[in-house]
Amino acid/amide ABC transporter ATP-binding protein 1, HAAT family (Marinovum algicola), 251 residues
Amino acid sequence: MTEPILDIRGVTKRFGALAASDDISLDLRPGEIHALIGPNGAGKSTLIQQIAGGLAPDSGRVLFDGRDVTALSTAARAQLGMGRTFQISALAMDYTVLQNAVLGALGARGGVFRFFRPVMRDAALLARARAALDEVGLAEFEAMRTSELSHGQRRQLEVAVALTLAPRIFLMDEPMAGLGSEGSQRLTGILDRLRRRAPILLVEHDMDAVFALADRISVLVYGQIIATGSVAEIRSDAEVRRAYLGEEDEA
Ligand SMILES: Nc1ncnc2c1ncn2[C@@H]1O[C@H](COP(=O)(O)OP(=O)(O)OP(=O)(O)O)[C@@H](O)[C@H]1O
């Protein structure tokens, strides 16, 4: 079997008496989209934060590319290739689409600003930024102010910004949230292609998107993974249906 790029082993995180992550193990393999689903409050965001480095687990380990990164900062993990898109947009709204992408590409150089050289005339940065915009279908909007983009286009731009860092994996926390059906369909198509670039750990409530995209699904309930399997396996799993899918209307 292919070696996982991301390997989470026995991660536990308690908030007082509550085990938000209760001995969680899961992995992410090259080329796949692994969806993490579960009801509100199940602990999905808490787990993503521990993988990205924003929150330290009480016990357990996070291995990335065979290396133990549990003690590394968010910035150090990003430098190693953990790409992330956020629930809350981190885009600069007054900048153009291209400027946002160039800022992302600049970060890929280690965050060293070279003030003596106007970045918007840096051919290598521009090429990297434009390639990322092209990949998410935003090439024709590069001169538009980000504030003028639709909600769905901003999500596409966030993916492009993450792409400029040439990530080894993507961590995505509810990328479909707030999108209409057209927007989520477009983003679904983009993520479908993106998995060939880098595997995606996808936290998502939109079950149409999850069922369309996921190679594997893990179901988190009360801080524990109750099942991992293919779309067909998860859809037919009696415990999953009882614990989660039956409650889908309430999510
Ligand atoms: N900093 C914190 N302090 C105390 N409790 C917390 C903290 N962060 C999260 N929790 C609790 O941990 C549990 C898991 O929360 P988390 O946000 O990870 O769930 P989630 O699955 O991402 O939910 P949602 O789908 O609503 O985003 C919840 O009961 C939440 O109230």
